[in-house]
Structures are given as structure tokens and as C-alpha cells.
Amino acid sequence: MLDNRKLRILYAIINSYILSAEPIGSRTITKQYDLGVSSATIRNEMSDLEELGYLNKPYSSSGRVPSDKAYRLYVDEILKNKKYNIDLGKKNQIKKILISESREIEQLLQNSAKVLSAITSYTALAISPSLNGAKIKHIQLIPIDEMQLLMVLISDTGAVKNSIFRLNKAIPEEQVNTISNYLNHRLKGLSIDEIGEELSDGIMREIYEYKATIDKIIPIINQSMEDIDNVDLYSDGITKILNFPEYKDLEKAKSFISFIEDKDLVLDLLLNNPVSQDIEIIIGNENIYDSIKDCSLITTTYKLGDKTLGKIGIIGPTRMDYLNLINILQLFSVNITEIIDMVMGKHISR
């Protein structure tokens, strides 16, 4: 356990390094912070912090940089004392931007990743809801022309899937409505595993004349439900890593970009990180993948009611302004949850 003086010096070094990206010496701390001790005392304390594993001394430099252990101590202090808050002005501003182009969860998450990356200048990541076992809430067939139909499928979780398909022959609009009503009657409340079982006893006699059309629709319904059950990944600002001095080495930058472009690896990283609190932070060597061992990942969750649906977060060099980024992510968490409740809730209540 570090005493109060060592903690204040360590936090001063972390804050200075976040801003400058340059190794920090005792003179810098003396000039920038009024810690009430001499430069010599700060030097001695920095040596002790280095021996304890909280500071590293880069090759050919007299200054020090924070270690992953230092960032972990710093971040845990922020999370423990909840030194973050919701700025209502910023929250409403972000919400207005997000909601303007978001009518489905997929659009909302794509837009959220784009706006989050723009605000933070980091690579932003978002994963769609993990909705295994989602059930059909509503099916609507809408004629586009004589030979094409739009199928809108809404799940009980608020996910919306649209599919356009061609008919073998034209059917009147009133018959399209009849088929819609039939499908809703038979399939509402069923999961993908239950659809085939429900229809295994055949199509009712009074609707049998539309069997060819229904047979064409059922595989589209199955595919839509599979898409809803599958988790998807959205990212934005991947090349922003090049703006950080830590990634001036192009090989290192290419390794990072290659990792982020590998959907399976990123999903594994996000989904295998257990959600134990609203904000989760993985720092440096805590990452299991070599390509991002110089990075930190900060994620938060979004919900529908009390159910956690998915995550949104940022990834970049460990030299992050953690407090500011945690505050921003909290804004996105609250906003995405509210928009899902408001916009997607309309679909669910149908």
C-alpha cells in the first residue's frame, strides 16, 4: 500500500504523461504541481515507485512513465470512488445526434460507434445484443409492387429485420394482409427452434391456396431470426491509432489495425470479458492478445429494462485520460439504453 505522498506523486506523473506522452522527470512534477516537497524528495520517491513496479524508465531517458500496475491503481481509485458524473448538457446533445438516424438497434449501434470515435479520437467498438432465444413479436408483409414484398420482422427484444423478396406470381394486397395475419397467429411468441415444429402439421385449409408464398417466406423468417440471435460487431475510427505517438512504428500500427479488423478476435475479447460492473477496463498486459498489450480497452453496457443487451467501448494506447473517457462512455450507456427503451419499445409493444 502506497502512502499518501507516493500516491500524489504517482498520480501527478500519470496525469502529466497522459498529456505529454513524454517521460516525466522530477523537475516537471515540481513545476506543474505544488506537492509541498522538494525536487530531490520527488526524485527519491520516483525511484521507490520504480522499484515497486509503478514506474518504468525508458531506455536512454532520465524520466519515467507509468506502468500498467500504476494505471490499474489509478483506474481502480476512479471506479471505487465513482469520480465520474453525467453532464446533462452533453448527454442531451449526444442523444439528439444518436436518435436522429436510429430506427433500429443496428443503426443505433453503428451511429454510436461513429459518434463515440469522433468525440474521443479513439477507435470505438460496439456489439449488438446477444439475443439467443429471441421470439417473434410481429410480422408485417408490405407490397412494394406487384411482384415484390417487404417483410418486417420484430422480435420480443426490439430487434427489427427487413427483407425484400420476389413472388412467383402477383397476389392482391388483401391476400398479403391475410398471409400476414396468419403468420402472426401461428408464429407469434416462437423462437427459431419452434417455428418448424409449429408448422410441421401443415398449413391450415383456409390459407392453403397461399402455400407457395408462405413456403417462400418461412426460410426468410428463419434467416432473420438467426441474424437476430447472432452477435454482430460495429467499429469506427480504426486508423485513428496512427495519430498517437506510441504508434508511429508502422508495423506496430498495422498489427493493431489487423487485430481490430478481425471480427472473431474482437468479439472474443469483448464477450469473454465478464460484466461485473457498469464500466470495465482492461489495461495493457491484462489483454490476452499480443497485438494490443500496449492498449487499454474501456467498455460499458447498454440495456433493455433490466436486461444487459450488449457493450460499447473504446480501445487505444494505455496513456488515456481515463476519467474523461469513463464519463463519456457513461453518457453513451445511458443514452443508448434510453433510446432502446423509447424507440425500440414502440416495436415491442405492438
Compact overview of the structure:
Helix content is 48%, strand content 18%. With 350 residues, it is α+β, with helices and mostly antiparallel strands.
Descriptive account of the structure:
The protein has 350 residues and is of the alpha+beta class. The chain folds into three domains: 4-66, Orthogonal Bundle (Arc Repressor Mutant, subunit A); 88-130 and 231-348, GAF domain (Beta-Lactamase, 2-Layer Sandwich); 136-229, Enolase-like, domain 1 (2-Layer Sandwich). It has twelve helices and ten strands. The chain has a five-stranded antiparallel beta sheet with strand order 7-3-10-9-8, with helices on both faces. A three-stranded antiparallel beta sheet has the order 4-5-6. Helix 2 packs across helix 3, helix 5 (88-100) packs across helix 12 (322-348) and helix 6 (105-120) runs antiparallel to helix 12. The longest helix has 27 residues, at 322-348. The mean pLDDT is 86.
Number of helices: 12
Strand order across the biggest sheet?
A: 7-3-10-9-8
The major pleated sheet works out as: 5 strands, antiparallel
Q: State the secondary-structure class.
A: alpha+beta
Tell me the distance between the termini: 56 Å
- Overall pLDDT score: 86
Radius of gyration: 26 Å
**Percent of residues in β-strands:** 15-25%
The dominant shape is elongated
Portion of residues within helices: 40-55%
Briefly, what CATH class of the largest domain? Alpha Beta
The fourth-level CATH homologous superfamily of the largest domain is GAF domain
CATH topology call of the largest domain: Beta-Lactamase
Name of the CATH architecture of the largest domain: 2-Layer Sandwich
